[in-house]
């Protein structure tokens, strides 16, 4: 795999091509405010889109957890004492990933098991339709940064008002006509990342996504006034991320 140096995209973002294990190892201890990761889910099938594809198959659940655990160890190291991590996974592994995070961060550092309820998707005659992903939120220490997000209230009584968000995030996944869609497989909506980044990192802080795909986390972070770092092993992902960052109004120059 040809390696390319980290590229600075605009004022506040950099993206690098490679295995995030190696790239994370090159980052300083305690230098990041929020790590969000949306790794392959071990679906057993390649994920394809018009702007790229990635493999999503591991020899076994244990091999998957070993892959993830080694990378989560580095994520833990790079977090500041006030930092936290959000690990995006689904029904296949969330129960096992939670155990990994308990071992790494300590069970007392568990903050939330967020449910991203995305609406779209198939149905099954043999089970309730699976219409959510899991996002596991752990803090590095009890001193972690958090600003409760506000969402529009739905009750008649609070009509037109805002209320504190709960651990169920009702945010539609991207449909085929969504303007922000770039064709990268499993692209997450900006609305989701924007809420997470604003809640779990301070303004001016640093957000790192080691499996950045199309760069949604980096775009959300830069839009929210944070610095962003992204890694991906796919050159199409890095190109797509770079293109999205450079299309941001805050972008100035490209070095690298
Ligand atoms: C689920 S996608 C991320 C999608 C992203 N959240 C978005 O909104 O576009 C997972 C990504 O992990 C990348 N990946 C897989 N193994 C990797 C590794 N060892 N290091 C870095 N990236 C990796 C894949 O290339 C893929 O782009």
What can you tell me about this protein's structure?
The chain is of the alpha/beta class. The chain has a domain at 31-205: Rossmann fold, CATH 3.40.50.150. It is built from 6 helices and 14 strands. The strands form 3 sheets. It has a 10-stranded mixed sheet, sandwiched between helices. Strands 4-5 form a two-stranded antiparallel ribbon. The chain has a two-stranded antiparallel sheet with strand order 9-10. A hairpin with a 2-residue loop joins strand 4 and strand 5 (52-54). Helix 2 (61-78) runs parallel beside helix 3 (94-105) and helix 4 (190-200) packs across helix 5. The two termini are 19 Å apart. S-adenosylmethionine (SAM) binds next to strand 13.
Strand content: 25-35%
Oligomer: single chain
CATH topology of the domain at 31-205: Rossmann fold
Characterize the main sheet: 10 strands, mixed
Neighbour order of strands in the largest sheet: 11-7-8-6-3-12-13-2-1-14
Q: Identify the overall geometry.
A: globular
Structural class: alpha/beta
What's the tally of helices?
6
User: Which compounds are bound in this model?
Assistant: S-adenosylmethionine
Q: In CATH terms, what is the architecture of the domain at 31-205?
A: 3-Layer(aba) Sandwich
Summarize the helix and strand pattern as letters.
EEHEEEHEHEEEEEHEHEHE
Task: Name the CATH homologous superfamily of the domain at 31-205.
Answer: Vaccinia Virus protein VP39
What is the β-strand count? 14
Cα gyration radius (Å): 18 Å
The low-pLDDT segments are none
CATH class descriptor name of the domain at 31-205: Alpha Beta
Distance between the termini: 19 Å
